[in-house]
Amino acid sequence: MSANVPGSGSVPCRFAHYFVICGIDTETGLEPDELAALYQWLEADRHGRTKQTTRTGENFDQSPLRRTFKSKVLAHFPENIEWNPFDQDAVNMLCMPKGLSFRTQVDNRDPQFHSYLITREDGTRTYGFVLTFYEEVTSKQICTAMQTLYQMHHAEHAGSVCASSSCSMDSLASSTDEGDATSLSKLHCCSSYDISRDTLYASKAICLITPLPFMQACRKYLYQLHQAVTSQQPPPLPLESYIHNILYEVPLPPPGRSLKFHGVYEPIVCQRPSINELPLADYPLRHVFELLGVENLVQVFTCVLLEMQVLLYSQDYQRLMTVAEGITALLFPFQWQHVYVPILPASLLHFLDAPVPYLMGLQSKEGTDRSKLELPQEANLCFVDIDNHYIELPEDFPQFPNKLEFIQEISEVLLVFGIPPEGSLHCSESATQLKNLALNDLVNDKKNGNLPGDTLAVFEMLQGNATLERLQALAKRTGVSVGQVDGLRSSSFKEKETRLQCDEEELRNAMLNVQIREVFAHRFTQMFADYEAFVIQSAQDLESWLTNREQMQNFDKASFLSDQPEPYLPFLSHFIETQMFATFIDNKIMSQWEDKDPMLRVFDSRIEKMRMYNVRIPNLRSSIYQKCTILKESTQSIEQRLMKIDHAAIHPHLLDMKIGQGRYEQGFFPNLQSDVLASGPTNNNRWVNRTASTQRRKDRLRQHSDHIGLDNDLREKYMQEARSIGKNLRQPKLSDLSPAVIAQTNWKFVEGLLKECRMKTKRMLVEKMGHEAVELGHGEANITGLEENTLIASLCDLLERIWSHGLQVKQGKSALWSHLLQYQEREEKLEPPAESPVSLGPERRKSETGLSMPLLRVSLIQDMRHIQNISEIKTDVGRARAWIRLSLEKKVLSQHFKQLFSNQALTKKLYKRYAFLRCEEEKEQFLYHLLSLNAVDYFCFTNVFTTIIIPYRAVIIPIKKLSNAITTSNPWICVSGELGDSGVMQIPKNVLEMTFECQNLGKLTTAQIGHDNSGILAKWLVDCVMVRNEISGHTYKFPCGRWLGKGIDDGSLERILIGELIIPCTDEELGKQCRTPPQQRSPTQIRRLSITSLGGRNNKLNAAQIQEAVGEAVNNIVKHFHKPEKERGSLTILLCGENGLVSALEQFFYHGFKSSRIFQKNVFIWDFVEKAAAFFESGDQIEEAETGVESLRPTSKIFCQYATAINVTPRNIGKDGKFQLLVCLGARDHLLPQWIPLLVECPLITRMYEEQALLRDRMAVNSVIRVLQTVQEFSITLESSLVKGIDL
């Protein structure tokens, strides 16, 4: 639809599309509001009460003056417009969201202004501006009906004042003017009606429907119309003349121009930004900041950016609209893509069940506090209580980048305009006192976001006002000039004389709007200055791109995040996953084939301008805050437009009306003559001709493009599908609220949730597995920890929304945890001892020794107990997220949910029929998508809850067939991980199995094992050590395959073992302790035995393979340090694991090594190192040394120092362990490239190495030295388990 596109015909170029009147239909009389009845029926259904009493819509508990009655569109002009069809039900509901309300002469009957918008399915918007006032009821039939209703009400309640007053508190039609100080007598007076004594008034609404949000102009126009009705003197012309004028003779101002048109008494000015400026936003941001304060607003703004559910809450409709429109205007260059209903009519309260991101406004009932408001879901909800200056934020909420500096910059702009950053004082306690003063009307008016047109009158009333004086005093104290504030008073006098085109207040609001929006826009320009470099242009033409849109990545997220400053990452990693960011990038890609989106065009031009003026190094990001520097110049164009008017519309004029039409009666809005308002002028209006000829020219161009472009219907289909990815309903359908339509809406939600689940799980798999990511331009196939955490948090949000959909009764903030608790309670009652455990493998993991790791019994309830035992988690939302993370890490999430759904009686009790969890087919697909996540390994629980106490189980498995399974010595173990170590723990003798508790060690990396060499059986041949995390179930195997004992193997009494994660797949593989591709490989110590044994000679690598292995090991270390610090993993594995640096250098030193046995004793590399150190320390080295060794004297001293320190360590780590330690220390202190030439120059090399050995090949040695030098620039930190007991 093109109703929102100016220039596509004469109708869309009109300032207003419709003029509407809503009110009471005197012919049908008083009818209960069916929509309110539907709402009451749904509420009764929600709370499980009987529905029979609510179906009629009658509510005898409430005073008749406080009930809602059916309103009706009494008239609208014109009848219909092709571009913007008139939706009577929606307009009626939004013009009078509470339905008809009645007053008597003792009630406050001030006119109230509010606005609304209707979002169409294609995302375009229509705005409505409404003035509601009270008109005397002249129909005897209606007055009599009201009297009868009162008699029934009094009969029901026997005249109880208290009952009447308390019930009126719950009414949707409660007045905002009755404060706590209202006396009971006044309340009684308000709640009664006597036809002989009282005058009855009914609400009536007049409304303008426009394509663009010219809020200020429409408000002035409607107030002038109302003034004409209530004035003692009739207006200069019949009202039809003014309405005909604005409907047919006032055009939209062209972009970059201002327009003056005429109301009943005064001219009205509006202006429209040019195509190079920020889009039109006429709602005064002044009021938004006064209502919320800067800090609250920035927090809500961040929630909107991250597409959380945002609920605005206020008694006043215009406040809801002002805050919603204000926040969405600040999103530039992004646009809200989800449900957007700034005013949610009472009958649509069930729409808060929507399991999608939304931005909605809900009218609060007077006297109802936050605790009484039952919301279906709160896990991901941002609740904004506008009237009480209070917000509730979701948990795990990332802050906006440079938040403090950002708030400071906004505050400085506000202070210049005399607005305190903490919000207006009328939000505090003084508001209640002010309400009882003579300025009551003014305060109420201000509260509604309305300011009277006559500035002079305002300031006459404000003289001596404490609020204004406090504002001025505050501004002066902060050193801000208040000349502009003071000037407002004098300018109002000047206005009368000089007749400026717009009042000062309007100009100041417009200037403030522009400056605040520039500050926000500047932040995005700074943050996304280089976004274009990361856009993936993968399609050749629009058709192929639209066809494959869902399967394609359009933005290189990993590379973009790696280019950002560290403090920005928590926010940006979430934000680039949102639909608004995806749509922004989609628009960028489509701009190569079609016209650029207007907001994108403005944003790109700003980035281009910034690059021209700010020469900075490309891709070098800085978190230093840069203020917006164009605030003053940004307001110049708007000042010029408002001071000097570009266009003036035709004046209202007499119409061709019959005699007697247009009759004036004070206080009553006349019955307008439809014949003169049904259609526009047919004369040769220049504006109509110009737009018509433009339209004809565009039609010809369009016909031409239809022939040469792709099939239009197909293209439109693709376009709609592509743009709807990840989106759901933008707005509930207001025109039909039958149960069938509500069911259809819920069905759309179910489909949307399933689609979102499929997209999220697919994204998690692609990112984790990496293959598709590499093909699309990622440098590595590794997902970063930050991205992974963001995707898992996003999955947690989705699961909470699924569990919140269709809840019968809400319990607690987390619907998922509430369901789990009720399941736990039922299961524990049924079978307290057993929990129907889910086995992850056979009963015992058998090894050749008969020893094994006992079975870990896993069940949904057992995992819940683990989470409940973690004292660090304080909230239900936190517990639900921890449980999801644990289940994901254990690869049982889908299995647990299947177990949860097996209790169908519980699901039926908790959820309504339309809920997602009661749609069997969709539920099966949902479980299937979650099951796919078992294909990858997550450590999302272990890596997040780093401070909790975790139970571990360790089993030492010796090699029994060599008859040394049992040792008489006292064994010990120390387990280390990425987060710490357990400390040395004694293992019970001859048991070889133990459990221990310690703070989370993270992913396990090493295990030190040893014994004290006591007793007759002191030699011990260990196959491996198994350690299991008893919460996550992760089991690590630490292979050994070597002896521990004096006089055997290399004489070691302790060894440092490197761990590998065992990933069980099937029972059979578990029985064999399978080695399916582990995430981190361990060293096979058997390899070292084969090198030094006679039988191992055939397995030795050749020279080229050894050099390649050294290069690969060093390359892995370099890559480790080029990753972000939080994502590096264990350096110990890269140093000491299989294919690590120690292993590669071992191969290098063993090549050509004369390891023949002397008296059946092995010779180790450490023997060569010891002899070399002894040679360098001896006094004969100077005489025997060849030329060049003299220069190595300082290096030789350091080498000898290290070798001695390793030899004298109290630890019994054996010869291979000592060589490993030497390599690790040499790498840490950047000495390896100096030590290798030293060993090469040692004369002992000819005795211990063969001629063809790599160590005697100069080229090979130089090559290895060059490779080792590449790690010199990195700071290597060794685990304490490696360097314990070394004194240098």
From TrEMBL:
Region (Disordered): 828-847
Domain PLAT residues, every copy: 950-1058
KW Membrane (keyword) present: yes
Signal sequence interval, chain numbering: none
Annotated PROSITE patterns: DENN, PLAT, RUN
Superkingdom assignment: Eukaryota
Family statement: Belongs to the RAB6IP1 family.
Species of the source: Erpetoichthys calabaricus
Protein's name according to its UniProt entry: DENN/MADD domain containing 5B
